[in-house]
Amino acid sequence: MLALKILHTKEFMAKLLAGDVFDNFLLEEAIIETYNTFSIDGHIHKEFYQNDIESPNATENSYLFSSWSDMKGICFNLIKGKNTPLGFRFVLHLKPENALTAIEPDNNNSTPSNDYCLNIKFRDGAVTVTSAVSIKIFTLDKTADSLWDSYIKKFFSENNIDFTEEY
């Protein structure tokens, strides 16, 4: 597990809510505190799309959670305004196909072995990002954690997201 403090909140928020940097993620949960507390459960209700010709494509429909690219506009609309939000928390998961190419390229399976998550929290003017891996089998091996943490640091650096590690 890795804990990062984002150094430039405004630039990070622009990349998170208005850019495409995090479009390879899915949203499990969003809690946004402004004049009310808004809670979004990102679990997809597949039965909602029965007999709907405008339902998400087959790949999108196979996800457990909604795509961040579909949900970030809703979150942005809840956050924007003249007042800074009191706080928010987003739980994001790397899309499985990206996990297979970026984190587990040697996996011959069509689904990743693990679930790779980011917890993004804003409180008191500061953004912290925590990485986590949900391992699907019991193991004492921490290789997946190390690979994910290294990937996140590289991903942030490549996208000009400045951070310091929190201990």
Task: List the defining traits of the structure above.
alpha+beta, 167 residues
Structure description:
The structure is a single chain. The protein has 167 residues and is an alpha+beta fold. The mean pLDDT is 87. The chain has helices at 9-17, 58-62, 68-79, 96-102, 143-158; strands spanning 3-6, 25-33, 37-41, 66-67, 87-94, 114-123, 126-135, 163-165. It has one domain (3-162). The protein contains five helices and eight strands; from the N terminus they run βαββαβαβαββαβ. Strands 1, 2, 3, 4, 5, 6, 7 and 8 form an eight-stranded antiparallel β-sheet that branches.
Which structural class is indicated by helix and strand composition? alpha+beta
* Dominant shape: globular
> How much β-strand is present in the residues?
25-35%
Helical amount among residues, as a percent range? 25-40%
β-strand number? 8
- Main β sheet profile: 8 strands, antiparallel
Per-chain topology:
Layout: E1 3-6, H1 9-17, E2 25-33, E3 37-41, H2 58-62, E4 66-67, H3 68-79, E5 87-94, H4 96-102, E6 114-123, E7 126-135, H5 143-158, E8 163-165
